[in-house]
Amino acid sequence: MEAFFLFILRYLVCPLVVISVLMGMCAYAVLAERKISSWIQNRVGPNRTQLPILAYIPVAGNMLQRIGFSQPMADGLKFLFKEDVMPGHVKKFYYVLAPCLSLVCALLTCTVLPFGLWWAGDGSAYPLVLADLDIGLLYILAISSLGVYGLVLAGWASNSKYPFLGGIRASAQLISYELAMGVALLPIFLWSSRPGVVSPLNLTSIVQAQDGLWLCIWQPVSALIFLICIFAETNRLPFDMAESETDLVGGFHTEYGSFKFGFFFIAEYAHMIVGSAVFVILFLGGWNFLPGFPDPWPHNLFGSALTIIWFLAKVVCFVFFFIWIRWTLPRFRYDQVMKLGWNVLLPLAVANFAAYLIFFALFPKA
Amino acid sequence: MAKVLERKPLTFWERTYLPQILGGLRITFANMFRRKETLEYPEQRPTLPRGYRGAPTLVKDPNGREKCVSCQLCEFVCPPKAIRITPGSIPFDAPNANVEKAPKEFDINMLRCIYCGLCEEVCPEEAIWLQDIYSITGTSRGQFINNKAKLYELGGTRPDAHLKWDKKLAAEKAHAEGGAHH
Question: Which among A42, A325, A329 has CB closest to B31?
Answer without folding.
Answer: A42
